[in-house]
């Protein structure tokens, strides 16, 4: 006759360690999604950084090559000028980022849901708690993952630096971490963290609130049932709202992370997120804050279709 200890030992891994199994499966799914959609992320970053008005202050040494024209031309230009595989330049720190972000976000969200907020008396978890919890969890996860995001953005721009005749900054991912740490210290690894966590909060807020609102509206006011069609329409709307809210902060984040720095690791173009925002709007117009919007939205929709975050 088997003992409770034997039954526990023979039970499936998912039942013995549900959180660990959930995190592992989530990490695997995120890695696959990252590999499949990374060219959109690279294209987005190149579009966000092109045409920086602040570069004019650095003189001839910072002249840009001809700007990209739209998402498709950007992707084709990268393939023609740098090679097909360069569409995945920076994918390794991006995978690191997903592991850190997903883990930090999941642990924080479940702690908030079970310990801080708790469910109501009818065992229902209200939408407002889900939204606040999602925003706070996204902020924590993004803050923890900021060093990997920083390395990802800088590595995504290495191909463009080579085309402009500038020296490459890094030999690889680990050299990038070591160099940033040596030049700017621990603080240098968190360059751009303010707009980064702002983006995370705005994206999670727009995503969660819009998805649930649209889904409930469709189920209650149309003949549609809770199925894949309803999910697709809700994801379409939530991804659009999340991109509208989060793209300006994403543009500021990318520019601050990619800006040249002095020997002490201080930025040469922007003093702060606010300074970057003002220079972008004054020098390039308000719509410069939405550079890279289309690939950002398409990528967000692809991730949502793979599974709700």
TrEMBL record:
Q: Which reaction does it catalyse?
A: chloride(in) = chloride(out); H(+)(in) = H(+)(out)
Domain of life of the organism encoding this protein: Eukaryota
User: What family is this?
Assistant: Belongs to the mitochondrial carrier (TC 2.A.29) family.
Solcar repeat residue numbers: 21-115, 125-217, 226-309
Q: Does the keyword Lipid biosynthesis apply?
A: no
One Pfam assignment: Mito_carr
In which compartments does the protein localize? Answer: Mitochondrion inner membrane
Show the InterPro entries listed in the entry: MCP_dom_sf, MCP_transmembrane, Mito_Metabolite_Transporter
Summarize the protein's role.
Facilitates proton transport across the inner mitochondrial membrane and may dissipate excessive proton gradient associated with oxidative and metabolic stress at neuronal synapses. Regulates glutamate-induced proton conductance in astrocytes, shifting the energy metabolism toward aerobic glycolysis and lactate transfer to neurons for ATP synthesis. Can transport chloride ions with lower efficiency. The transport mechanism remains to be elucidated.
Q: What is this protein called?
A: Mitochondrial uncoupling protein 4
The alphabetical list of record keywords is: Membrane, Mitochondrion, Mitochondrion inner membrane, Repeat, Transmembrane, Transmembrane helix, Transport
Stretches of the chain forming a coiled coil according to its record? none
Signal sequence range: none
Membrane-crossing ranges are none
Q: How does it sit in the membrane?
A: Multi-pass membrane protein
Q: Does the keyword Transport apply?
A: yes
Which GO terms of the cellular component aspect does the record hold? mitochondrial inner membrane
**Quaternary data:** Homotetramer.
The primary location reported for this protein is mitochondrion
């Amino acid at each position: 006759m088997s003992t409770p200890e034997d039954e526990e030992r023979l039970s499936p891994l998912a039942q013995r360690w549900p959180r660990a199994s959930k995190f592992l499966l989530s990490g695997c799914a995120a890695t696959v999604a990252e590999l499949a959609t990374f060219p959109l992320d690279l294209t987005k970053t190149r579009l966000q950084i092109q045409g920086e008005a602040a570069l004019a202050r650095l003189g001839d040494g910072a002249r840009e090559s001809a700007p990209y024209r739209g998402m498709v031309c950007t992707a084709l230009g990268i393939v023609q000028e740098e090679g097909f595989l360069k569409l995945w330049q920076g994918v390794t720190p991006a995978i690191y980022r997903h592991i850190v972000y997903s883990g930090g976000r999941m642990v924080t969200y479940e702690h908030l849901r079970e310990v801080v907020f708790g469910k109501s008396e009818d065992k229902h978890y209200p939408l407002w708690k889900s939204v606040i919890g999602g925003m706070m969890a996204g902020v924590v996860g993004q803050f923890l993952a900021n060093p990997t995001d920083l390395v990802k953005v800088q590595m995504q721009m290495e191909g463009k630096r080579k085309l402009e005749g500038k020296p490459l900054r890094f030999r690889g991912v680990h050299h990038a971490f070591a160099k940033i740490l040596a030049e700017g210290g621990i603080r240098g690894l968190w360059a751009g963290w303010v707009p980064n966590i702002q983006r995370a909060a705005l994206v999670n807020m727009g995503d969660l609130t819009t998805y649930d609102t649209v889904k409930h509206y469709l189920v209650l006011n149309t003949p549609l049932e809770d199925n894949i069609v309803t999910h697709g329409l809700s994801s379409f709307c939530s991804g659009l709202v999340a991109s509208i809210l989060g793209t300006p902060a994403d543009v500021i984040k990318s520019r601050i992370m990619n800006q040249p720095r002095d020997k002490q690791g201080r930025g040469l173009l922007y003093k702060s997120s606010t300074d970057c925002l003002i220079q972008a709007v004054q020098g390039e117009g308000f719509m410069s804050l939405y550079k890279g919007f289309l690939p950002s939205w398409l990528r967000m929709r692809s991730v949502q279709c793979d599974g709700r975050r």
